[in-house]
Every structure is written in structure tokens, then in C-alpha cells.
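Newbie here. two chains, one complex. Structure please?
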Amino acid sequence: MVNRQSSNLEGIMDNEIIFETQNLTKQFGALVAVDSVSIKVRKNSLHAIIGPNGAGKTTFFNLLSGNIEPTSGKVIFKGRDITHQPVHRTIHYGIGRSFQITNIFPNLTVFENIRLAAQALGRDNFKFWQAASQFKNYAERTLDVIEKVGLKDRVHTLARTLPHGDQRKLELGMILAPDPEVLLLDEPTAGMASEQVPELIELIQGIQKAGNKTVMLVEHNMNVVMSVSDQITVMHQGKVLAEGTPSEIAANKEVQTAYLGGLYELNV
Amino acid sequence: MKNFFISHRGSLLTLLGLILLPFLVGLLNGASPADVFVNGNGQSKFIQGLAIEIFILTIYALSFDVIFGITGLLSFGHSMFFAVGAYLTGIAIKSFGLSLPATLGWLVVASVVQALLFGLVLPRVKGITFALVTLGLGSVFHILVMSSEFGEYTGADVGLQGVIVPAFISPATERLRFYFVALTVMVLIYLLYQRFVNSPTGRVCVAIRENEGRAQMLGYNTFYFKLSALLLSSLTAALAGFLHTLYQPIVSPNTAGLGYTVTALLILLIGGVGTLNGAFVGAIVFRLLDYGLRRYIGESASFINGAIYVLFVLFIPYGIVGTWRLKSLQIKQGWERLLKMFG
């Protein structure tokens, strides 16, 4: 089964693969949350992971970003084995990660939230004798990012007082600040009002196209997934059920029964 | 430059007041500044003593603020940081006859070692578990200084007594000099802390307090930041202990107990946790309340003291400085809204 899915990617040169997992497995006691998942993610693509609740999508992301360690298998990023790297290292390799539940510094300003993200990868973290405001490069980067995610008029607002949609944008900004090559976005539109969704999706697409970035996306909104993805991996009960382009996935019988099954009207 | 004076007017006025305090008190009692300077004046000397105690408490409370208020680590063994400084100073001078610079050298070594000791448990325990483990570490130290095995050095449960303070800084004969030394140390520590909090390192410490998981995911190895806060705290608290021993000059085993950690916590709760300025404001209120109640009410003072603190926490949960900042921000925002309405 697993072998069949990777067939789509045969013939692609290895140097075009930025992210790869080999038989990645995570067990929580008796529960196998992620079961021997092997996928390849092409550079500069928008790769969506979909599947019903409990399919193991978020756990899979946690394994990729180093938030948790796998039971077995490998995570390879740009040809380098990062399986056992802790989360504070993986970002230094160029992996940015967002969360299903908004994860920001609630009592700090928008500026400080993003400035901290920009400062993280520099070499000035232990210069305790200098004021943080003296490091202009981080401040400039911060303002750039704030403009990019569209929070320009909210620079000095406390993060917790932002409306939910803006908090999602802020979180996106915190991932963008260190300029990662791969963005792992876990349900970026979760909890957003439906009229705000297109705006955020446009933002994500714009970032991916303009900056030559690879985006991996977990998303429940099928219309979004079908319209923006280059490649889709469908997970079901911890396993990869299918993989392919949006039209291939929409036509797949197994996916229809296991997941989409009448719940979504697909107009592909 | 002008902006500097305006934006720091509160701190500068406070500093000016503290420099003039001994002479103003002297004037009120009919002693000229020259009298105060040369002979010392009874009332002025007494007030200086009270102020010195407040300065030492401020330094101690600041050392707790950097780990608790800034970095969000609740340590219940904090009094150990102070007591190590206090005891080591006493023992170095009394039992080994060391000079003050040599004593300070040993203090630095001991502070680093104990910060690393606390640091050992840092990656393993978080939150309330860290509080309990540090409570354990502090209690072990408390038992050690109370035990008769080391009584020769520590004075066991009686405390360390008979420390001969070098004459040039003796609080008995050179009170005014001691006053200015303690004031200078407090101001320098305060400035260092202001800089630390606003430095790249301090900003990350604040981020750890707010959301440690997120800080890690931004790429910070939070262990090193928490350890640097502990190191700074340990060095500062030991310095407070050093001044404490020179001023008193006895060391009670109570300084190693849980009660002394609670003292730091109370001072911060009164002044405002994580505000730095709150340490000074809190220390003034704490010391004066304690002194005033003991003097005018007597033994039942601690009961009333406790009741006052409960009311404090209920009515001013952000502390004096914290509430002040909150209110002045709200008032400022209110004015801005009002001006917007008309402009």
C-alpha cells in the first residue's frame, strides 16, 4: 500500500525533495498514532495533509518539527537526518511550524512577538549588556514581516487583545520572521470566520510563490485544499491512504469512502 | 539628553531624595549637614539604618524578581541564595580572617556553584515541581546551617555572631559611609537589572514566562536563558547577604528558612511582580509596616501584618507599581480617545 503512493513521485530527482519521511511511526501505548508513513515533499510545492479527525495529521507534524520523538522511522530534511533533533534545533535548519490552537505570547505586543522570532536565529541572544532595541536588523525584519502579514496598524497592540483572525496572522508572522524554507501550517484557518479565510489563504499562497517556499498544510476546509494544493496526502488511522494531485485524490474511490464520503461536494 | 531627564524623572528624583535623606533628617533634628557628615546624628543615624535595611531587602527582592517575575520560575529555595552569601561572608571574615575583596571572590564562586546546582534540576522539572524541588534544596541548606556538626563555623541554631567588620565600613562608627555604599550597590544592581530585562537575553526570559513552549519553538534553547537568570539571581542575592552580614553583623539561621523566601515574595506582591521598581517600593512598605506595627502594637503585630498583606493581594493584585502602570496607561489611552473625539 505504502509503496503505491510514492509511485506518483517516481522519476523526480532526489535533490528536488526537501522533506522526506521513511516508515515514520509513533506509538502512544497501544495506540499507533502514525503508522509507518513514508512521504516525499517536493521543494517549493504546496503539500496538503488531509484526513478525518484522529488520522494522525497533527502528530505527524509534531514528528516533523521535532516536538515529539518517533518510535521508529526517519525524518530527513534536505538530505540530513533530523529524526532526533529537539524542536529548538529544527527551526535553525529552516522549518517553521504553526499550531492548530493559537500559540503566541499573549501579554507581549505584536512587535515583540515577531521580534523575538526574528532574534531567535541571530547570534545576539546572550548580549545581556546591550539593549534589545539597539539591534536594528531585527527591528527592520520585524516591521517587514508585520507589513507582509497585514498587521501594520497593530504594531503596538497586545497580542491577546487582537481578534482571532489577526492572531492567526500574527502566528504566521512569527513563523515567517526567521525566513524558514519549509512552513508547517496546522489548520491555519481553524476557528476563523469564513469571510476571513480567502484572505489568509491568499496570504499563504503569496508567501509560497514569492519566497520560493515549501508549504505543508493540514486543513479541513476541502475547498481550500483542492484549490491551492500541488500535492495531497490523505491519512487515515495513522496510515497513508492515498497520495496525488487534487484531481487524483478527488477521483480516488478509497478516499471517497474513507473520508470524503458524501460529506463534501467536490467541484473539481 | 533633555528627554532622558523627563522620561526618568521619577527615578532621578527618588535617587536625589535618597542622597539627601540623611542630611534632611539631620536638619529636622537641628543638626547641620556638616554635623551629620562628621559626627553622625542620632535620629539621622537611626533612619539611615532603616534605609540600609530597605536597600538590602530591595537587592534581595530584585534577585527574586529576575527569576520569578521576569522568567516565571517559582523557587521556594530562594532564601538559600541569600543565606549562602550571608553565612559565607561571616565565616570568611570570622573563621578565616579574609579581606573583603577575597570574601567577595569566594561569594562569586559559591553563587555560580549554587546556581548550577539549581540549574541541574531545571531541565527535569517545571512549574510547581520546580518550586518543590527548590524547597527541598533550600531546606537541606537550612538544616545544614542549623546542625551542630558545623556549629563551630555557623553557630548552629544560635546563628553566626561576633563578626568583626573592618573599621572603615563599620555600620556602628561609619554609618553614613555604609549608607552610601549600600545605596550605590542597590542603584548599580537596579541599573544592571533594567539593562538585563531590556536586553535580548532578558526579552527571551520574559517570553519564557509568557509561553515557554512557544519560545522553544522559536528556536531558543530555554535552559540556557533560565540558567542565566538563575546565575544573575544567585550572584545578586549573595551580594545582598554580604551587605546583610556586614550591617547586622550577625546571621540568624532564619535567613535560610522558607520564611525568608516568603519575605521576598511578599515584597514583590506588594510592589508589583516583574516590575523591578516594585522591589524597592515593596521593600519600603514591608520594612516600615513591620517596624511601625512592632513598635506601636507589639507582639500581635504579625497578625495585623498578615491581614494587611491579604487585603493587599485582594485589592491590589498587581502590586503598587504594577497597578500604577496599568492605571496610568488607561488614563493615557482615555485622554487619547478624548482628544480623537474632538480632533
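Moderator note: Confidence is low (pLDDT under 50) at residues 1-12 of chain A. The longest strand of chain A covers residues 17-28. Thread marked as resolved.
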